[in-house]
Design brief:
With about 325 residues, the protein is α+β, with helices and mostly antiparallel strands. It folds into three domains: about 170 residues, no CATH class; about 110 residues; about 35 residues. Helix content is about 50%, strand content about 10%. The strands form three sheets. A five-stranded antiparallel β-sheet has the order 1-10-3-6-2. Strands 7-8-9 form a three-stranded mixed β-sheet, with no helix packed on it. A hairpin with a 4-residue loop joins strand 8 and strand 9. Helix 8 packs antiparallel against helix 9. The radius of gyration is 33 Å and the shape is elongated. The protein starts with 7 loop residues before the first strand and ends with a helix. Keywords: Membrane, Transmembrane, Transmembrane helix.
Length: about 325
């Protein structure tokens, strides 16, 4: 499986046979930004700028001014959603997945829901027009050995996704409990029943008031201690069982919270990995730029010496000084009037 710094190649997908060409193209036109790029890397950079969860590569045979280009499709998903968590159907991640499924999921419950090219990708070559001499139905996705990325013919779409969006991680997200469940009044009432069972009314320490606020377990315990009959013992055991059940429910919810917190921490680590990759790329590019500007080497195509840069810097400083002088003169004159 091929991967680059920020996005990972998943599979090559085909349009479902049940979806018409017109409908498929309508979704592409309405819900995706389309551009022609010279490489997968160029499409990836555009996706990073729009904070997209995935992008699609299609049709390396596209040409522009006799140069080889490929189609880049980036989903139009509003990242300014009010739901910034990973829970619910209105999150950025879930809406991105729904958009992907609107293109490639055939809705089948008996067959695989997606039509994909067998993995791993078998064909590798150093020619981006690898498929052109093949019949249309034999054209497949292939690995371009120059940049180690997957390119496609017109009938295929290479799906590049953030590492977060693996099937295992998606299952983790879908199995997590929505945080609102833990603060739901009904749930909280069930989990705090032990407080009512154990409640002791300090205004009635002798249990003589008919309207006292003693809990059921407290009353049954007092009744059995004072009158140890089989019936009072049975009633006490009923309340002890209720308390034990309540504690088990509480411990189960605590375990659920612990599991969800662990899952959230794990899923957030993918964002940290992306940030580290971006920072590493910035450092690498900064070093390349520094080498370009400060060393000659064999790079005859570099910016011509440092003289030109120095001249630009001098001009820049002169313009800045003139602007400062102008503003001083303008405000001095305005103050005098």
């Amino acid at each position: 499986m091929t991967s680059n710094n920020y996005f990972t190649f998943d599979k090559c997908y085909s349009k479902p046979t049940a979806v018409s060409e017109a409908s498929f193209n309508r979704i592409l036109a309405n819900d995706f930004y389309h551009s022609t790029v010279s490489s997968v890397r160029d499409c990836e950079i555009q996706s990073i700028r729009t904070n997209s969860e995935f992008f699609l590569i299609n049709d390396i045979s596209s040409t522009l001014n006799n140069n080889i280009y490929t189609n880049c499709y980036i989903p139009k998903v509003d990242n300014n959603t009010n739901n910034t968590s990973i829970f619910g159907n209105d999150t950025t991640i879930q809406r991105a997945l729904q958009l992907f499924d609107s293109l490639f999921n055939n809705g089948s419950t008996t067959n695989p829901p997606y039509s994909t090219q067998p993995m791993p990708i078998a064909d590798s070559c150093n020619n981006l027009l690898f498929n052109l001499n093949k019949p249309f139905n034999q054209q497949v996705c292939f690995k371009y050995v120059i940049d180690e990325q997957i390119y496609t013919p017109k009938s295929k779409y290479a799906y590049y996704r953030r590492p977060l969006l693996t099937s295992d991680n998606i299952n983790i997200m879908r199995n997590m409990t929505d945080p609102s469940t833990y603060t739901d009044s009904t749930t909280l009432a069930q989990l705090t029943q032990f407080e009512e069972l154990l409640k002791f009314d300090t205004t009635d320490p002798t249990y003589t008031s008919t309207n006292s606020g003693h809990g059921a377990l407290t009353r049954s315990f007092k009744n059995y201690i004072c009158t140890p009959t089989p019936e009072n013992l049975r009633l006490l055991n009923v309340e002890i069982t209720a308390l034990n059940t309540n504690y088990n429910n509480l411990f189960t919810k605590l375990d659920d919270i612990k599991t969800d917190l662990s899952s959230i921490n794990y899923l957030n680590s993918f964002d940290n990995n992306t940030l580290r990759a971006i920072n590493l790329n910035i450092i690498t590019k900064s070093k390349e730029l520094n080498n370009l500007l400060t060393s000659g080497g064999a790079n005859n195509g570099r910016l011509d010496d440092s003289t030109l840069l120095t001249q630009f810097k001098i001009i820049e400083n002169i313009i800045l000084v003139l602007l400062i002088i102008y503003f001083i003169f303008y405000f001095t004159k305005k103050k005098a009037t």
